[in-house]
Design goal:
0% strand; mainly alpha
Length: 262
């Protein structure tokens, strides 16, 4: 699938992401499966009886999931973006090259994400003010502060919906990556958020259905559940890349320059 200069409708964005996964299932679902399938086997059993019988084992399982999600999943998400950057440019994408990009871009993505987290926390100041001055505020003032404390962090976060794509495909770093990400979605925040939310709801429904239908099957159940979640993860990542390209087109920008995975 080559990059296109024309803009897309919402339906076309959703369909283009699906086409990317459908045309490259081994690469994209395979990368996603490295993140999702192990987690499906590692998630501890939430049965209270089993947890009480082996609390150490349950804690070990929870820590294993947390460690894997913290260290491995981000690398694979970045690898997916790198592979999609190649595919949407009409170039061949390789599994190994994508994984190397996942490692190479981990620190820049983590740093840019940390900056966003700092801005989000700063936007939570109204909530902190309510906590500190609760006794001195009227009910209306408290309600207003709480509303702002919820709305402002959300508005800040959605400005950086395309941060990963900007860091990996455009190789922007730090504050420049934040500026560029905010620039791409300026004037289209509701549309961008709505598209990604819709994609998330669709894949969430897929994951929930798989968990309900397959979760109780020994051994094969977690595997099939993890694969279903891998399809969803590959799709939502592809959706982010297609949306990124669409936003460039809407701003009258050409497709990004030749991108080669690290």
């Amino acid at each position: 699938m080559e990059q296109v200069r024309r803009t897309r409708s919402v339906g076309e964005v959703l369909d283009a992401a699906l086409d990317l996964v459908r045309q490259n299932p081994v690469l994209l679902i395979g990368l996603a499966a490295l993140a999702r399938v192990p987690v499906a086997f590692m998630v501890p059993d939430a049965d209270p009886a089993r947890v009480s019988a082996d609390p150490i084992g349950a804690l070990r399982g929870a820590l294993g999931v947390l460690l894997y999600a913290t260290l491995v999943s981000p690398i694979l998400w970045i690898a997916l973006i790198a592979a999609l950057g190649e595919l949407t440019g009409g170039r061949a994408a390789r599994f190994g090259a994508a994984l190397r990009s996942g490692v190479a871009f981990l620190v820049p993505v983590a740093w840019a994400s940390t900056l966003v987290l700092g801005l989000v926390l700063l936007a939570c100041a109204p909530l902190l003010a309510v906590a500190l001055l609760r006794a001195h505020l009227s009910g209306l003032a408290r309600a207003l502060a709480v509303s702002l404390g919820i709305l402002l962090p959300t508005l800040v976060a959605v400005r950086f919906l395309l941060l990963g794509q900007v860091v990996v495909i455009e190789r922007a770093k730090g504050v420049e990556a934040l500026r560029r990400s905010a620039e791409l979605v300026r004037g289209s925040l509701p549309r961008c958020f709505g598209i990604l939310l819709l994609g998330g709801l669709l894949t969430g429904a897929l994951g929930a259905g798989a968990q309900h239908a397959l979760g109780a099957i020994p051994v094969a159940g977690p595997l099939l559940e993890g694969l279903a979640e891998s399809v969803g993860w590959a799709y939502t990542t592809a959706l982010g890349v297609v949306l990124y390209l669409d936003q460039r087109a809407r701003r009258g920008e050409p497709p990004p320059p030749a991108f080669t995975a690290a």
